[in-house]
């Protein structure tokens, strides 16, 4: 090594080459150091998300994929249930965040509006309604055999409130079919059975495939508000903080679905 150093010292071209290689080596060492530094800052751990049916089945399915790509070392668990159940999980510290409708009288689950989702009226492609070239009146819409969620659900209540608002009280005595599954409801409609109104996010793919057809109904204006909930008495985990940050960023007006 000492002999090699003497050769380099007395041959200027070797000096330049030696310095060049030395700088490259130091550059590689710095890159390696940066890589290990980045690894140390990668988030690990678990994230438990509690979501209502619409949010869990239709909203989170794509967003969780984006989150996983950015944070592949975080284990994700998705709990689903009605809005009261998923917000209860957050209050009890059994879930980090909840995505659901608004729930009253919560003690520790603070809810912030995430998205206002419009409802759309739909029928099947073989339904006579699909061939109509005009808007239906509210009364005409109510006279079709409507597929609805069971009494007491938020979706059912929203539609009943709208019918009352436009003065169609006959709807309350009209025959309907009650289904406790949104997916089952969509299948019935797609096969030409009656009509229904769903949150647009829940039927977006079916409308694209034209397995469901959107109906125009006069003065139809029903929206569903969905909220992000977290426990304001507990410190957010780093994984939950990053999830909320990424979710908030993705929900900016230009990206809103």
Structure notes:
By secondary structure, the chain is of the alpha/beta class. It is 45% helix and 22% strand. The strands form two sheets. Strands 1, 2, 3, 4, 7, 8 and 9 form a seven-stranded mixed β-sheet that branches. The longest helix is centred in the N-terminal third of the chain and has 30 residues, at 12-41. It is elongated. The N and C termini lie far apart (67 Å).
The proportion of residues forming helix, as a percent range, comes to 40-55%
Binned strand content: 15-25%
Mean pLDDT: 84
How many strands? Answer: 9
SSE order in H/E notation?
HHEHEHEEHEHEHEHEEH
**Main sheet characteristics:** 7 strands, mixed
Radius of gyration: 28 Å
Stretches with pLDDT under 50, minimum 5 residues: 35-40
Shape: elongated
Contiguous helical run count: 9
- Helix-strand makeup class: alpha/beta
Question: Could you tell me how far the N terminus lies from the C terminus, measured between alpha carbons in angstroms?
Answer: 67 Å
Characteristic terms for this protein:
257 residues, two-stranded parallel sheet, elongated
Layout: helices, strands, pairs:
Layout: H1 2-9, H2 12-41, E1 45-51, H3 53-70, E2 74-80, H4 83-91, E3 97-100, E4 109-123, H5 138-143, E5 146-148, H6 154-165, E6 176-178, H7 182-190, E7 195-199, H8 200-209, E8 213-215, E9 223-231, H9 238-250
Parallel strand pairs: 1-2, 1-3, 5-6
Antiparallel strand pairs: 3-9, 4-7, 4-8, 4-9
In short:
Helices cover 45% and strands 22% of the residues. It has helices spanning 2-9, 12-41, 53-70, 83-91, 138-143, 154-165, 182-190, 200-209, 238-250, and strands at 45-51, 74-80, 97-100, 109-123, 146-148, 176-178, 195-199, 213-215, 223-231.
């Amino acid at each position: 090594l000492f002999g090699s150093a003497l050769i380099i010292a007395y041959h200027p071209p070797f000096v330049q080459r030696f310095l060049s290689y030395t700088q490259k080596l130091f550059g590689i060492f710095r890159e390696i150091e940066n890589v290990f530094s980045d690894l140390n800052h990668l988030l690990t751990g678990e994230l438990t998300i509690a979501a209502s049916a619409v949010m869990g089945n239709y909203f989170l399915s794509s967003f969780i994929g984006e989150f996983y790509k950015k944070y592949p070392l975080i284990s994700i668990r998705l709990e689903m249930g009605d809005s009261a159940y998923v917000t209860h999980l957050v209050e009890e510290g059994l879930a980090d965040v909840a995505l659901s409708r608004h729930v009253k009288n919560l003690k520790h689950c603070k809810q912030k509006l995430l998205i206002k989702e419009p409802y759309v009226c739909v029928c099947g492609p073989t339904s006579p309604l699909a061939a109509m070239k005009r808007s239906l009146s509210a009364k005409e819409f109510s006279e079709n055999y409507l597929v609805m969620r069971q009494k007491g659900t938020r979706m059912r209540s929203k539609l009943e409130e709208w019918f009352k608002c436009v003065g169609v009280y006959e709807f309350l005595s009209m025959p309907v079919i009650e289904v406790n599954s949104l997916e089952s409801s969509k299948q019935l409609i797609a096969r030409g059975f009656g009509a229904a109104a769903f949150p647009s996010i829940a039927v977006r793919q079916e409308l694209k495939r034209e397995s469901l057809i959107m109906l125009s109904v006069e003065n139809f204006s029903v929206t569903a508000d969905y909220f992000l909930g977290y426990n304001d008495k507990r410190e957010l985990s780093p994984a939950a903080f990053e999830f909320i940050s990424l979710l908030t960023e993705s929900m900016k007006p230009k990206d809103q679905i």
